[in-house]
Amino acid sequence: MRQSCQRQGTNNLVLKEGVALFQAQVTSTRGNGLFARISIEPESVFGQDWPVCVLDGDSETRRLPRLSAPDELMEELVASPRWASLLHGPWSMSFIQRDMDALIITGDEIPACEIPAWARLHSLSADAYAQLGAQLQSNICRLGDSLTEPDDDVLHAMMLLPQLRLVNHSCDPNCELLWDPGMQQGCVCGGACGGGCFLLKARRAICAGEELSFSYLGLQPISTLSCEARRQELLKGWGFWCGCPLCVSQEEHAVCAVRGVDPKRRMRSEGGTLNQQVKQRVSISRAVSRNK
């Protein structure tokens, strides 16, 4: 899936370094997420994250894994201890059942002899191999065409961000996702892979304890697409029906407009406040929301 983000160099931006600004937590309705540990000022840039890169064949040179060769990334994750937290533990990559069902061959159908040699070398079962494929499908992204040149290798690469993959979507996000192709020194390869760095930029003041979010669709579609259109795009691309406060609010106002009812009066007549209604809507959408 493509990831919508803004290309920007960080030379003129103030990076927040030297302190852990966020931490992973379990959300009440959307699986895992990232939350601010301290207050973050508007326009602050933080959360530097470098995509996972792989060895280029038998050489010591590293590059980004190709979209056309998912086994490159799968082998890197299984073979390298540095990525253990992506496969095991409370913050490991999860997947949606749709991605598991979409696999052409499921774990039950893969004969042991057809599992790639690298998977057999690491004693990966057929089921585990299929699940890893579903995990990547639910967690990887790639850059949009507008950010790179048509012949740029980065355009044809899979991006797996070890930390920022945990950030949930919102149609009214408190952060924006940035990509700086020149900021590469923090990568495990020292920048040889050319993947650049991904960062978060606060769109407004963020309180300590608040969940971080950015728009998976980018910021422009939020202002141009209807609530229904955004939800359909997210369902098609990411497998969840958006239950963010903005979508719930716009849906409620749309229903009231059709019925010719004042939204505030409708809330009172149903014996609940707007906040209670939002909470109920989000709770109902829990089963189909993105579960990281």
Would you give an account of this structure?
The strands form five sheets. A four-stranded mixed sheet has the order 2-10-11-5, with no helix packed on it. A hairpin with a 5-residue loop joins β3 and β4. The chain has ten helices and twelve strands. The chain is 30% helix and 14% strand. It starts with a strand and ends in an 8-residue tail after the last helix. The radius of gyration is 21 Å and the shape is globular. It has 292 residues and is of the alpha/beta class.
Q: How is the topology of this model organized?
A:
Layout: E1 2-3, E2 6-7, E3 22-26, E4 32-36, E5 45-49, E6 54-55, E7 62-63, H1 70-79, H2 84-87, H3 97-101, H4 117-121, H5 126-139, E8 142-143, E9 168-169, E10 175-180, E11 197-202, E12 213-214, H6 220-224, H7 227-238, H8 245-259, H9 263-269, H10 274-284
Parallel strand pairs: 1-8, 2-10, 9-12
Antiparallel strand pairs: 3-4, 5-11, 6-7, 10-11
Keywords:
single chain, 292 residues, alpha/beta, two-stranded parallel ribbon, 12 strands, globular, disordered C terminus
Oligomeric state of shown chains: single chain
- Round the Cα radius of gyration to an integer and report it: 21 Å
Question: Percentage of helical residues?
Answer: 25-40%
Q: What is the succession of H and E elements? A: EEEEEEEHHHHHEEEEEHHHHH
What sort of overall outline do the alpha carbons produce when their principal axes are compared? Answer: globular
Q: What is the overall number of helices?
A: 10
Order of adjacent strands in the largest pleated sheet: 2-10-11-5
Major beta sheet summary: 4 strands, mixed
Distance between the termini: 15 Å
Mean pLDDT: 78
Instruction: Indicate the structural class.
Output: alpha/beta
Beta-strand percent range: 5-15%
- How many beta-strand segments? 12
Point out poorly predicted stretches.
Answer: 9-14, 263-291
